[in-house]
Amino acid sequence: MQSIIFIGHGSRAPKGTELFVKFISEVIEKVEIPIKEYCFFERYEPNLDQAIESCITKGGTEIIVVPVLLLPGVQTNVEIPEILKKWKQKYPEMKIKFGEPMGNNPIMADLLKERLERKSFSTSGQDAVLLVTHGSHDPQADQEFKRMAEWFSSINQCTVEVAYLTTPPLYKDKAEELLRQSFNKIYVIPYLLFAGVFLESMAESIESNPGIELCDEIGYDGKLKELLIKRIEETKNHPKLEL
Predict the structure, then answer these.
(1) Which terminus of the chain, N or C, has fewer Cβ atoms within 10 Å?
(2) Which of 88, 62, 67, 63 shows the shortest CA–CA distance to 77?
(3) Rounded mean pLDDT of 77-95?
């Protein structure tokens, strides 16, 4: 019997967890697969091991795992596959398919454009966009993030740069660098599903600079439901990892 697991990162803030559960519960309602579970990679339960065990207990013989993450990284490239391989060794007859994160696609570009439109971004060339994410030690995550910026820049004919919350270049330093390049205003978009305290901290750190405009984070936008439904079909037919 076919089963599916949606795996989120797991937020430090209870509000982030509540938003994830609400969002993924609405996605699950649209999925026509007999066994449906969600879990968190860290901080909250159920974790991935518990979700897999639940699927097996309910009769699952094929498990489709879809990451609810914006970018690839150590989790999607190493840590989650290691857990899945452990379960495959324990149940060799079970089929396991693991999908890609949301990545670069037209829906993500639309969401970025909407965030800018809310703040009256000008495409005159006098303003620049700065995409900000946590920061990762995985080169693929960094490359994918930069490709997203380059793609968004090309289709909207505007300057788009990247920066990070925890690793260089830090967003505030990068925004001030762009202002020194004679841009009138820098529009900062947190490339995060839930910004929480990060958004508050960012607002505090740049509130004294009128040249920097903080936009809304990506968030659990309704359009992402459509994207996740597509990811299910892609994972069924062309998984990132098949065991």
Answers:
(1) N
(2) 67
(3) 96
